[in-house]
């Protein structure tokens, strides 16, 4: 049986071979773009139908479809501090703005957190005369500390 | 002369004593909320006027105002992997969704990054019948790899 | 102004001097035992009344009471892997049983987590003919992964 | 000969293929649910009968059964600090409440520890109007420091 | 109030000044040599009488005596891997012989551990024609894994 | 040619298959129990005769015998801090008692170390009415710092 | 499909076998020397034509050419701190001169960074009577912190 | 006596108070810009005259001048991997281009290194229509491996 | 093509099989003993003739000879702090005497280093009535800090 | 009472103030140069006479003399991997030549180590037409593994 990591590798390779995009995969699967991408990279379990739709489009077999349905052990960074520059910038945002975000969550909501479980994510390119921008929206349920 | 870290500590204490909010500080300073918070926590240098407005509201002295104007050496986490749960959830988002964000930036923009320098940040509480949400917007200029 | 860590140190010392117990402090504060202990060790913010009741019993001053009310930056281990044997055994439980607990949460509840925010904790000594036992109950809301 | 890790992988795969649950495995083996799960994940040695009952239900061969009987070198985390969110929450509990638990063990029992060897574990879903809860019970013999 | 670490430092200094030995301290305290040394270095709590006997001999004050009676948070190495050569050799023994000791415990006793809580330690110089030897005896209760 | 690690793995497996004990191996090899175990786990080189005697008893081939004779690169822990509980307790002993042992070596012998090279080790189960004990004896030559 | 790392390994081997130089590869590819080297080592994606020209010269197949075109996950050091002396000296330069470079960027440009994305690199041997020199030019766009 | 680190702190503060630039300091000292900056930050020892000229301009005392003349223990990063974004980009350059630089040094010079001891550094702002650039020149003597 | 590490492994195995010594290899290669050993372990590139002479004596093939000629990426420790006791003692020497060596280099030569590139090494057994000694000579060119 | 580290700092400062050299200190103390330097940096205990001679020459008080006589906890590096370039080169030697030295010790002496306890060290500047050299001699007793 394939591991989720091997299945993700197969998905990446099939994308190169078939030229299918994450957007097309999301449409075929019928789920949001970022969720679908994360699931195909092994971070969320798919339903049988979702896995089937994705593997059909990517011309992959039943073994990949099965792996996509299993429960993941999540976590995808290559190291505690990510090395790839595109991913590192997200870490840098936490280094520079992490306590700022904490202060603003506490001021606006109280003593609690933004959930990373009841959570959705969006990544969009936004045209801008000063140069297009990448806008990433992290949208999680507020969870107050509650005994 | 105070270090930026000591100045940030003084700001936090003065907020407790005076009851002034980050929102009031941002308004007094005349800059966006998240920028102002980050600057007062020592992650951005303030102009003389900005530092003056903030310290006046917080009833702090000239030594704090001076420290707020100096060039920061940025980085604010207590450890490579943050321990506080409110901040950790941001790290967890990178662990689970980092490669997803990387894939989507590359698909939508090409081989490059979201800048963390030409960058703005917003944190908002959004009412929701299923429980209010924290929405964090990371908005950085797209920078293509360019030789 | 005292930091939460200095306040916690003052609390520990006052307990030795006055002989007051965590149980007596919890009763005075009117909150559960483990919550009160955690709050007095600096991991939860107390209300003004709660802080006042605790510091009165411990014969501590207003500076400690104020520190107990401020928002904590949580996290209390002396190292990523705790060294003290009483605390290390909890880490050992995760090393040996962490994946077991994960499997059982997924089998009984689905793809999600036990919240550590909407969470309560209990520690009790339970008499047993084969030697008394320590029973620790971790009780957190189930949070399903939900987009 | 299979390693315990390979045997655990075979067990996980066979569970997906056969649809057998941990609860059914525990019943077949005749041991508590959490013990059985931990043993099948390679953290406890099984007797010949226990291993036989589990592998029969999972339709696995003698090589897996043999590996399940060997003495484990315990420890199952992917890193010193676990990355998977379901497991990380347990680590977060130690970060936030570890010293609290230590204080309460000492207050109730004296200078000693909760054993992680003479120890049992239970994981249960508990219905709750405010949302079902996961209740994890750690139950270990109290061991006083004794020269 | 002194911390246990400050008290240990005071003990070490007083030993230099007074010329008192660990053996004399153990005799005055009425406890075994290694236990007494460990306690005076802050790794075990002393009774009021024990602390009093030790501080009297060392000509130290009540503040040290009080600190010696408080509950320790144990752990005394300067780093995860100790640097001082005399202590490092103990770590080297675990690196070279750790799995050997594990195998022999399992062969002689079954699946379990040597307790480090119900435990005593002895360090002796043993005359030997080929050069005197240091003999360290680790003597802990066997604890079988027991659910 | 097999590595020492692969040879050790072959030895462990052959022990399960043949039911031969470390004690029987030590007797066949004609060396002390702990030395023999360590050598078969790859931490000491064996003579041709010793390796032959061990592999004959274990019904292993010449390739294993050859690997057992090669010079080891020593060190056997899975991580800087060992994870398996049976081995971890040895590390905990160093954390709690390392400086104590150092003090006692210095008091009894002077400024030097217990050698881990001119060294022998014994592990024994000792019957005890309060529960049998594991007694580990570390016996190394005293080496004074000598220029 | 080959990974970028396997493709880089194939490139290195083919260089030894064919005797082709990085300079010849850069000329064939029609891109700067350092860019071409980095791309063939897997740190930049090549166009189909570039990959074709390089693999033709190196007598490598289509699988390598395809791998050279895929999007890299960047980062090439063997450890957080590089071990190879030729590479380590670059790290040493940051250790000794990092804050100096930071001060000079801030003095000459303001609060910002040298981009490592809009960036080019040159490595040249420069004859010198006192011994030839290696001159490395790092040339990146200045990016001011800009909200 | 001041440490070099305290002297560097005094220099930074005096620069803010007096408004003196690194360029003015270099001119007063009569050494290159980057060398002077590094020396005043504690990474090179200054002669008595150099230290005198710098402290005179900065209106600092003899204690700072003395500290600037002592032999440094070099190394200035806040962590093994630097956190400040302006400095981190230099580390990122090594992560992405380190092996490229190594290959090009070996191709152009043979088996050796660029010295970081017989070494000079230059940092310049270069006007560019596409946005000004920061150009950093690392210029070290080539040292061949030589037995 | 073999990696340098695989070639080194082949060399070690061939030494066991053929009984050839490092001294004989150095003589056949016509280079110093320590250089030859390091080169055959993959830390220096050999010329075609040197590699040929060594592989002939060791009865190894052309693939090993080729690998021995390629440019190494140097660094041979199994971890940042070496675990094998024979190698660890060298690390211990740096821990105990590193700053001493630094002081003496500075006192005798000035502000600079002992080169590890223009460097030779010798290891010799020296008879001694008090027990034979291992004498290791590190002999590197003095390099002054020079701008 | 001063710690050994504070005493070492006092020694370094007094050397700057008085202009006394390590060589003069060694002569006054009557011990070898490297031993004396190491002892004054806190890595060896001095006799009362030795400490007296050194502090007299350095014009330091009795508190320093006393600290120099106490038993050290050895280990002097600022990090597991040293950062200062003069000291780092020693670490680099172990990285590149550590296994070479191990092989040569085993070939010349058998299965054992060079002692770092029964050990002496010498650092000398040696004139050389190609540039003066630093020659460091590590001279330790050979200790065979001996049960």
How would you characterize the overall build of this protein?
Chains A, B, C, D, E, F, G, H, I, J: This is Cyanate hydratase. The structure is a homodecamer of 147-residue chains. With 147 residues, the first copy, chain A, is of the alpha+beta class. Chain A folds into 2 domains: 4-69, lambda repressor-like DNA-binding domains (434 Repressor (Amino-terminal Domain), Orthogonal Bundle); 85-144, 2-Layer Sandwich (Cyanate Lyase, Chain: A, domain 2), CATH 3.30.1160. In chain A, 51% of the residues lie in helices and 18% in strands. The first copy, chain A, has helices spanning 4-18, 22-29, 33-40, 48-58, 62-69, 85-109; strands spanning 112-126, 133-144. In chain A, strands 1-2 form a two-stranded antiparallel sheet. In chain A, strand 1 and strand 2 form a beta hairpin. The model of chain A has no long low-confidence stretch (mean pLDDT 97). At the A-B interface, helix 3, helix 6, strand 1 and strand 2 of A face helix 3, helix 6, strand 1 and strand 2 of B. Strand 2 of chain G pairs antiparallel with strand 2 (133-144) of chain H, so a sheet runs across the interface.
Strand order of the largest sheet of chain A: 1-2
The CATH class of the largest domain in chain A is Mainly Alpha
Q: How widely separated are the two ends of chain A?
A: 42 Å
Say how many strands of chain A there are: 2
* Strand composition percent of chain A: 15-25%
Please count the helical segments of chain A.
6
Indicate how many domains the architecture of chain A comprises.
2
What oligomeric state do these chains adopt? homodecamer
Name the structural class of chain A: alpha+beta
Q: If you consult CATH, what is the topology of the largest domain in chain A?
A: 434 Repressor (Amino-terminal Domain)
Low-confidence stretches of chain A: none
General form of chain A: globular
Q: If interface size is counted as residues with C-beta under 8 Å from the partner's C-beta, which chains form the largest one? A: A-B, 67 and 67 residues
What is the share of helical residues of chain A? Answer: 40-55%
Radius of gyration of chain A: 18 Å
């Amino acid at each position: 049986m394939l591991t989720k990591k091997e299945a993700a590798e197969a998905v990446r390779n099939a994308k190169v071979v078939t030229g299918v995009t994450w957007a097309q995969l999301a449409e075929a699967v019928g789920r949001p773009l970022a969720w679908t991408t994360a699931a195909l990279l092994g971070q969320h379990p798919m339903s049988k139908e979702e896995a089937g739709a994705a593997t059909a489009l990517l011309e992959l077999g039943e073994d990949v479809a099965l792996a996509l349905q299993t429960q993941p052990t999540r976590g995808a960074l290559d190291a505690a501090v990510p090395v790839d520059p595109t991913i590192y910038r997200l870490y840098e945002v936490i280094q520079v703005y992490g306590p700022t975000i904490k202060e603003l969550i506490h001021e606006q909501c109280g003593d609690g957190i933004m959930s990373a479980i009841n959570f959705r994510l969006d990544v969009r390119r936004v045209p801008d005369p000063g140069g297009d921008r990448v806008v990433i929206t992290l949208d999680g349920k507020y969870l107050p500390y509650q005994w």
